[in-house]
Every structure is written in structure tokens, then in C-alpha cells.
Amino acid sequence: MVDDALQIPSSASTSSPTTSSCHSALYLPEILAKIMSFSIYRPDTTKTNRWSRTPFTSKTNPPWVFLLVSKFWGTVALKTPWLWSTFIARVPYTPRDRGIVDIPRMVDLHMICAKQEPLTLEMYWCGEHPTLIMRSVFLKLWAKQKQWEDVRLYVALRMDRMWGKPATPEPASFMLRLNDIPMLKRLDIDICPEPHVRSGKLVIGLGPAPLLETLSIGETTKFRIIPPSDLPTTDIFPKLTTISMSPKFLDQYFNCWKLLEATPHVEKLCLKCGQHFFHPRRTIALPKLQHLVMNFDTVRPEEFLQHCYSPSLQRLELKQCTDMFANLRTALQSLPIKELSVEVVDMGPYDPEYLVDFLQAVGALRWLQIYDDTPTYSHMFAGLLNSLAIALQPESSPEPLLSGLSSFELRIRISSFFDEVGSGSIRSVINVVQAFRRKCHTLFHLSVTMLHSDTRYSVFPFKDVEDMLCEDPEILECLSKDFVVTVNGKILSK
């Protein structure tokens, strides 16, 4: 069966291990199986982008290569279900025909050899790939729902052209019900349907999932809550602590707020909102929420914060938010946040005037990060840093600002050090370093990380600016045993 299904070369060795070829401990199948298990790469569940570096399943990666070593190794591998419980069907952008054709048969053998092991699966299917083959793979994985444990599905249900000819797939219509997946712990799903009658649709039914810990739903994914009649709504997901959602349409916002109302025990929430935004009709209580990530590119984040009760919030990350200093003060005053990360994209001309008020609203901060994502040559970020240095001076505010801050991280694009004629300056960074040095009398860490700009502006001398920061006498003069400055991870010293 193995030779037929996997097409293993007949030249593969059929001998057992000998003392001349490998350690005698490999005679023991359980020892060899344990060693094999270390070569299986599985996504790190502690990282948000845990799927980004996961190698896709192929005959050149484990566990397939073990079948080519010897008959003994192949037998041990085939009898170790855990080795086959991970399948990554991520097709390259320019796939070879042979590699695509092999995927369905590889899925079959993985599912057979995995037996009843919980499955870790990634399915990346877009319209550029041979549709009928990838649909076949999708159906095979779909049939094993009861064993899903850690799953990522990216499916673009659209018409495409395969090898220069129009593709005519059957409509891909599915209903994924979480109550049919009893082992599911982590689900990352993003369905991108094209509005075409032949495209089909996939709807996620969020029913009871007793083991679900992490849920991520893409911006065009259709989903709805299916509450059981014999359970309170708040008991549908008893272990769900991390949620990521990107609502785009009105019905998605409505279901997002319903989901949050059903998960008062959530601890981390990532929320990306754009067009058609409307705030919850009533206050959403999230008493255990500790980490909130907000990406509001066209609406103001205070629209959500003012309708969310989160007395335990410790860390707040604001991404792609514009004109934030003028609007967030009231919303942040009631939050006990200790860590704040702000991604600066654009600022109105009046923002620096509100900087002092903003800093007063987050006076309990222990950690502050400012991330530069401003346009090249805009001078916005340098102006913000200069305003921050002024705001930190004692005469700028009757109350001390950021009195409890112990760490400040500055992530600045290399282009922000230069003007239109290519003249470079680190004056704004020096001003901030000196302002914090005058203000802080306890242990304090200031970190400067330089970020590469896009390729069009790669001419900026990255190393030269780094040397300027590391060797500047005004920055070095601020150093002490209680005031530490790092530049790109290097600890500065006098």
C-alpha cells in the first residue's frame, strides 16, 4: 500500500539499523519514534502569527523522508500516528503540476496513519490554484472534523482560470458547525468568497465548543451564533480566552457584538474595524479582558471603548489610528492600563496640542511604545517626538506626566531621519532621551529600534544613522546605571 500510494523509490534501503550505521538505541522503535517526533514542525500556539513559518507538507519533509531511509524506519514511522497528525496544504504561488496532483493522495495517507490523533491542519486554497484538486483536498479534511484540534482555513471561493482555460468548479457551499468538532482548540478561518453564483459560500455556525481556546475570523467570513436551548449563552465557549475578528459588513458587526456578549471571560481581543462600523447597542461587559488590540483605520477607537466595560485591561495596542490624541483622553481615563502601544500613521495639525492631555489620561503607564508608520518625508514623527519632549518638561503640566513609566520603546522608520534633500538629523531622538533623563530618577530603559522603509527609499544609510545614535555625545552623557539606552538591541555605554 505504501509503495503504491506514496510511490517510494524501489531503491530505498530495506535493511534494519546496524551498529555501523547508527546508534544501537535506534533498535528500539519507541526511541526512534521519539527522535522522529522532534523533526515534526508544529505551529507555536503562543504566537499570533504561528502559521507564518510552518513548512508545507511534501515528500521532501518529515515524516515522508523517514520512509526512504530503510524498511525499519518506514515501519516505525507508519505505526506512529502522531507523526502524521499535521498536514499543511499550502500550495506555492507557482506550483508544479506534479506537486498539486500528489496532495490528495498524501492527505489520504496522513488521515489513515494518524488514526484517532487530534489533527493540526492548514488549508490554503485560492482561485489561482487548480480548483478541482484543492476542493478534493478540502473535502477530505472536512470529513475528519471530529479530530480537528488546531486548524487554519484560508479559502478563496471564486472562479479562476486554470492553465489558460476557464475553470468550472462545483459551488463550494459548506456549513461549519463548531459543535460537530469536539476536539477543536484553535480555529483561524478566513473565507473570501467572490460574488458569483458558481462561487458558493461557507458559513461558520458558532455553536457549543467546550475546548475552544482561540478563535480568529477573517473580515469577509460569514458566521452566526447558534445557541443551544439547554445552555446559557455565556456557557457556549467556556475556555475561549483569545478572539480575533475583522468585521466588514453590518451583519458581521452584529454577530461580533453577540459573540463578545457570549464570552465575558475573554482575556485577549484583537479587533479590526473599517467601513460600515456601528458601535454596540449596549455596553459589552468583558471583566477579564487584559489585552486589547484595536486596528481602526477609518473610525475612531473611542467609539468601541466607550461601549466596552473592561476593568481588568492592562495592555492596549492601537494600530493605524489617526488623530488619536485629540479623541482618546475621555475613553482612556477610566481604564487601568499599564502598557500602551501606539502606531502613528497620520496626525492632524492640532494633535500636539492635545498630547499633554493624552499623557495625563494614561498616567499609570509602566510601558509605552510608539511605532512610526508615517509617510516618508512627512516630518510628522519628528514633530511628535519634539512635542513629546516639550510635554515631559515640568513646566508643561501642573501634574507630573508618566511618573510611573519604567520603559519607553521607540520604533522609528529610517526615512523619518531625513528631509527631502537627504539631510539627516537625530535631533528629535536626542530631545526625547534628554527629556526622559531629566524626568526619571529610578531605573529606566529607553529603546530605539530603526525600521527599514519600503524599497523605493532604500537609499537611506541605515548603518550611518545607527552609528550617529550610538556615538552621539549628548545621548552618551545621559547614561547611568539607572538610565539605560539601547539602539537596535545594542546597549550603549560611555
Structure description:
The chain contains 13 helices and 22 strands. The chain is α/β, with parallel strands linked by helices and 494 residues long. The chain has a domain at 366-494. The strands form 4 sheets. The protein has a 15-stranded mixed sheet with strand order 1-2-3-7-9-11-12-14-16-17-18-19-20-21-22, covered by helices on one side. Strands 6-8-10 form a 3-stranded parallel sheet. The protein has a two-stranded antiparallel ribbon with strand order 4-5. Strand 19 (407-413), helix 11 and strand 20 form a beta-alpha-beta unit. Helix 10 (380-391) packs parallel to helix 11 (427-439).
In which order are the strands of the major sheet placed?
1-2-3-7-9-11-12-14-16-17-18-19-20-21-22
As a percent range, the share of helical residues equals: 10-25%
Note the main sheet.
15 strands, mixed
Weakly predicted, low-confidence segments: 1-21, 159-171, 195-199
The rounded Rg comes to 27 Å
Please specify the SSE layout and strand pairing.
Blueprint: H1 2-6, H2 29-37, H3 71-78, E1 86-90, H4 97-114, E2 119-125, H5 131-142, E3 148-155, E4 161-162, E5 165-166, E6 174-177, E7 186-191, E8 202-206, E9 214-217, E10 222-225, E11 242-245, H6 250-261, E12 268-273, E13 284-285, E14 291-296, H7 302-305, E15 308-309, E16 315-321, H8 329-333, E17 339-344, H9 355-361, E18 367-372, H10 380-391, E19 407-413, H11 427-439, E20 444-451, H12 462-471, H13 473-477, E21 483-487, E22 490-491
Parallel strand pairs: 1-2, 2-3, 3-7, 6-8, 7-9, 8-10, 9-11, 11-12, 12-14, 13-15, 14-16, 16-17, 17-18, 18-19, 19-20, 20-21
Antiparallel strand pairs: 4-5, 21-22
Helix pairs in contact: 4-5, 10-11
